[in-house]
Amino acid sequence: MKTSLQRIAIVFTKEVVDNLRDRRSLISSLASTLIGPILILLMVIILGKTLWRDQTENKLKLQVVGAENAPTLILYLEQNNVEIIPGPDDPETAVRNGDANVVLVIPAAYGDEFEHGRPAAIKLVADSSRQSAFADIQRTNDLLENYRKVIGSLRLMARGISPAVTEVLAIENVDVSTPQTQVLIFLNMMPYFIIMVIFIGGMHVIVDATAGERERGSLEPLLINPVNRSEFVIGKLLASIPFAILSVFVTLLAFALSFNAFPIEEYIGFPMSIDIHALIGIFFISLPMIFLASAIQMIVTSFTRSYKEAQTYTGFLPLVPALPGLALAFVAVKPTLWMMMIPTFGQQILINQMMRGEPIDPLNILVSTVSTTLAAVACIFVAIRLYQQERLLFGSK
Amino acid sequence: MIQVENLHKSFGKVTALAGVSFSAPDGQITGLLGPNGAGKTTCLRILYTLLNPDQGWAKIDSLDTAENILEVQGHIGALPESHGLYPRLTTRENIRYYGQLHSLRGAELEKRIDRLIQLLDMQDIELRRTDGFSSGQRVKVAIARALIHQPQNVLLDEPTNGLDVMSTRSMRTFIRNLRDEGKCVLISSHIMQEISALCDNIVILNRGEVVAVGTPEDILSKTGKTDLEDAFVSAIGSEEGLER
């Protein structure tokens, strides 16, 4: 037992030293861990800017056709921080071409209808599919609606009726989403990127220590040394773990820096940060997944003949667990015990919960950790069986 | 001491060995001679525990290669067909890794590495990473790491393959020295000159079977030829065997 552990330690140390010297793989693997944080930061900034930036402080430039037909309405708009610009001759084409966000069209009959207390027709031309016009459309609508209410109330009062009569419902909108939770939609993609990093972080070590050995022709002499195959498998597998852990750590650090040190507020108009405690929790929750990823990669590389072949297969691997995680970003899931029993899926739900700052059931952490660890152990046993076969020497045939 | 008895081994439909028996005593160099595909490498792979025979047995110092795997591995030093090095490790580190796997440690291990580096004349490449080494330098490192645990039995699969004349000569001297130390040396080759220059005993393999055994003189007298190459062709039955 003692000599067995010593041999595992020798294999482990050699692989770690060897792979630390492989600067190119090391740097490219660490660089790829930054993709997730950078991508999410960019998405938050770009969409945050167009969707949520408070626009009331700016003057709304509104193109109006026939402004002279409704002087009181125009006056009302101007009092509410709107700059009236003469509208184009063909409002619909102008909006379609993107020359204008919204065009208000006031027909000549407006004055007559307004005076006689009939509904005065006006037209609002807009393209609701254009995200960047969303704020302008919303604001114009709100202003017009407000004007309608004010004039309507005045008319009722002039006839001796309380305006409250027409208020069937008194709706109070309570939006519990803070700007933070709205942007969190993007942070929900974090589990996806963490899974990718877990699989990529130690991949080059596993590939080098298995398919790489075979390709270099160093596998055959290595196997002649008095070491059990299980010791080789465990030593090589363990050697990938520090690299994968480092990658996860770097990713989480990049998330922390990009959302806590980067001046996001200047871009999206409100402060936003990621709780450091949540990141620490995510780090520990990810550990069993790292073992599982390395074990699965050991299995796959047992039959790949070359470095290239091994990289092709192991490159696809993370998609299997990561795709359900990606779906989690858009569908709210209430964690149940059976979900926690699915290796890697439970962790992804827990990561999402931690990001949202929701209370977490310790039982869920326990169940997901145990199930993923068991899956990893099972995979390690399969890998050992595969490495005991004669065909290991030749790769798949 | 190596003993092989009635070895059979097939890969799917291909029969690599069909009842091979021979023995290689200590203090002698035994040559496994045969055309490509005769089963030399398969035979050696069974001897260094990487393959299990379908039938028959192989023993190293009376230890069965299919059963006492770790012990057998401690008794042999092997230069297999492929003997890749770790390009990011230095010569010394490559040798040290194998020494550690053989449970050698510390000063004793370093002393042995020093000795092998001197013996194989590798002082100039001792601290260099093995990336970009010539084939001669590679073989030297591969031999040094295979012999770090001072095994009694040395198995070399085509040891001078791809070496230039000078490297080949020094390799032969090195192999003879191993014999003079009393080791059991088993070499495989498809090159006649190689075998005739080195070996005390010759085992000629063809299509997975032993077709002739004995000293070079024995084989000449048995086949009635004066030239070992003619004897070889005669022993394997046809010119065709050479081309396979």
In short:
Chain A has 397 residues and is mainly α. Chain A has 20 helices and four strands.
Polypeptide structure, described:
The complex is a heterodimer of chains A (397) and B (244). Chain A has helices at 2-20, 23-32, 35-52, 71-79, 91-96, 110-115, 134-158, 179-187, 190-201, 203-209, 211-216, 219-223, 229-260, 265-268, 276-301, 307-316, 319-328, 337-340, 345-356, 362-387; strands spanning 60-65, 82-86, 102-105, 123-126. Chain A has 397 residues and is mainly alpha-helical. Chain A has two domains: 2-32 and 179-393, no CATH class; 53-166, abc type-2 transporter like fold, CATH 3.40.1710. The two termini of chain A are 35 Å apart. Chain B has one domain: Rossmann fold, CATH 3.40.50. Chain B has a six-stranded mixed β-sheet with strand order 6-7-8-3-9-10, sandwiched between helices. The chains are: A mainly alpha (397), B alpha/beta (244). Chains A and B meet through helix 1 and helix 12 of A and helix 2, strand 6, helix 3 and helix 5 of B.
